[in-house]
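We both want to read discrete structure tokens more fluently, so let's practise on a single case. Once you have written the record down, we can walk along the chain together.
***
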Amino acid sequence: MLLTITTTYQPATDLGYLLHKHPERPQTFTLAFGVAHLFYPEASQERCVVALLLDIDPVKLVRGPRGAGILEQYVNDRPYVASSFLSVTMAEVFRTAMQGRCDLRPELVETALPLSATLSAVQCRGGEDLLKRLFEPLGYSVTAGALPLDEQYPDWGARAYYELTLSATCRLADLLTHIYVLLPVLDNGKHYWIGADEVEKLLRRGKGWLERHPERELIAYRYLHHKPTLAREALVRLLAEEKEALDEDGEVGVAGDTESAASEEKRVSLHEPLRPSMNASSAFWPWKASQLIHGYRGMKGK
């Protein structure tokens, strides 16, 4: 699976400072499930492209004490489709960049750069509509092309796989974090055990944008591997943090802009019922708002 990130910010090679990866020095990272290669197909003052190529070993996914329960077949789509494997790889390879640290060029961290990220193949059973519902509220221009089952037999049609390109002028740390969180949501699964620590991870990575995302219920439910208890806890805490922030600073939009008065009136708060939109996400919302709020009040009373 392949992820490329392109910028036309000048000098474009400043991307190497933010990623802590020199454009002239390819690197290889050994992971439990395969090998990741990082290199720059293009690096000039006008345009810079960094590529992260993840080569998954399908045999490792099946054999061994950890892999025995993950996949039951040697032939599968995991080596080719962006999933939680790529998210884990990003956290390993781009750890410092995702934290928003750059000691050599600290001013770059907060600079909004013209960025474009392309994923060679993502699985999304909700189609292009779901891709846009997840990424467009974050300020991205979404381009998705359905991939055919077999290029030699176009009559076979396409499956739920897309080549996805996201374009925006934003911080690099935000782009990496959004992809990291939303890849398992699109794939609708994770390759490792999901516990309470995943709630903390979601809240940490989603701080500043997830609490105001219109699909936050679907994101929490899928990211936490369809575990209602964990998703409920995450959403309660998100809503509580949002209400506290609003009491102190006022309403702020997902992209950091002040929302209109009409949007403010429609804001979901702890005291209003959660009403997922009547679309594909509704099928994944297994509890009621009254149960959510009741559980939050019970937690406060302890």
Remarks:
- The chain has a mean pLDDT of 80.
